Amino acid sequence: MNIQQAAVASGLTPDTIRFYERSGVLPRPPRRANGYRDYTTGHVHILRLARGLKHLGVPLKEAGRILAVAHDGTCGEVRHDMIEALDHALARIEARLRDLAAVREQIEAILDGLRRMQPADESVPGMAPCDCVDIVSTLA
Amino acid sequence: MNIQQAAVASGLTPDTIRFYERSGVLPRPPRRANGYRDYTTGHVHILRLARGLKHLGVPLKEAGRILAVAHDGTCGEVRHDMIEALDHALARIEARLRDLAAVREQIEAILDGLRRMQPADESVPGMAPCDCVDIVSTLA
DNA sequence: CTAGACCCTGGAGAAACTCCAAGGTCAAGC
DNA sequence: GCTTGACCTTGGAGTTTCTCCAGGGTCTAG
Question: Chain A residue closest to B90 (CA)?
Fold first, then answer.
C-alpha cells in the first residue's frame, strides 16, 4: 500500500505521515525498489492510533512512545511510566468525550435557533445578512 | 471575573484567551478601571464553546464566525452559510466521538497487555526496560 | 509597606502541520 | 513507443496556533 492509500485508510494526510516519520514519531515503513514507502494494514493500525492521539492533543513526543509500544511491543521506557502515560491518555479520552457531548448540545441549540428564525425562504441562498439577536441570545 | 478565573472556568489558559481575542476570534470583554478584562458567565459560555471547537480542530477563522453568532446572535454571514458551518461542526463531533471510542479500545488493549506482562514487581518503579513483544504484537 | 500573585502589552519562540519546488515513477490511452 | 496526469521522493519555507517571556503596573494580606 502506498502512502496515499495509507493516508485515506487512516484519516491522516501524506504530508502529516511523512512529517511524523521525519520526527521519529512513526516507525519507518519498508521501501519498494523505486523508493516508495510500502505500508501494511499493521502500519495503518498505528497510523489510526496516531491520529487519535493527535485528536487528544497528546504531544508528539509522548505519542511516539505509545506508538512504539503498539508497534513492536517494546517499551524503551520503564513499564511503570508507560502504563502511567497510557492511563493519562485514557483519562484525556473520557474528559474529551464529555466535552464533545456538551459542545454538541450547544451547537444544536444554536442551530435550532437559526432554523426557527425564518422558516420560509429556505431554498434561496445568498440572502441578506440576518439578525437573530433575540433567538440566539437566549442560549446563554 | 478576571481572566484567570475565566480561564479556569472554561478550561483554556489566560494566554490562549488573550491570543483568541487578539486574533478577533473572541468578543472583547469590557475593562475595569485598572485595565483588567472583566468576564461574565456569558463570556465563559462562549469560551467553553471556543474550547470545544478547538478540540474539533475547527480553524480559528471559522470558529470566530460561530462564536459571533453564539455571542450576540448576529451572523454577518448569510444564514444559510452559518447553518452549513454548524452542520459541518456537528458532523465533525459525531466522527470525533466514534474516533475517540476506537482509540480508547486500542489503548485499553495495550494497557491490558502491559499489565498482564509482569504481574509481580508492581511496587518497584525504575526497573530495567521491558520487552513485551509477544503480548502487544497480538493487538494488531 | 513589602511580598507574592495577579494583570497588561508586544514580541520572540515553539509545536505541528502544510505547502511548494524540482525531479523521478507509473498506469492508461493512442 | 510516447504522452499525460496522478502519484512518489526530498528538503526547505511558510502558516497556524499557541506558549512563553520581559518589562511594567495592580491588588491583597500580613
Answer: A104
Which has the higher per-residue pLDDT, B122 or A89? A89
A11: left (phi over 0), alpha (psi -120 to 50) or beta: left
* DSSP 8-state secondary structure symbol assigned to residue B31: B
The β-bridge partners of B131 are: A74
**Integer Cα distance of B98 and B91 in angstroms:** 11
Nearest chain B Cα to A115, which residue? B83
Say how many C-beta atoms besides its own lie within 10 A of residue A24's C-beta: 12
Nucleic acid strand D within 7 Å of A17 CB: no
Judge contact between B135 and B113, C-beta under 8 A. yes
Give the number of other Cβ atoms within 10 Å of residue A123's Cβ: 6
A81 close to B (CB below 8 A): yes
| Cell representation of residue B12 | 483554556
Residue B13, SS3 per DSSP: coil
pLDDT exceeds 80 at position A117 = no
Q: B3-29 pLDDT, tens per residue?
A: 999 999 999 999 999 999 999 999 999
CA–CA gap between residue A4 and residue A10 (Å, rounded): 10
Going A81 to A83 to A85 to A88, the CA torsion angle's sign is: negative
Q: From CA A111, how far away is CA A115, in angstroms rounded?
A: 6
Q: Are strands A74-75 and B130-131 parallel, antiparallel or unpaired?
A: antiparallel
Q: What is the dihedral of CA B23, B71, A92, A69, to 10 degrees?
A: -40
Q: Is the model's pLDDT at A139 over the cut of 50?
A: no
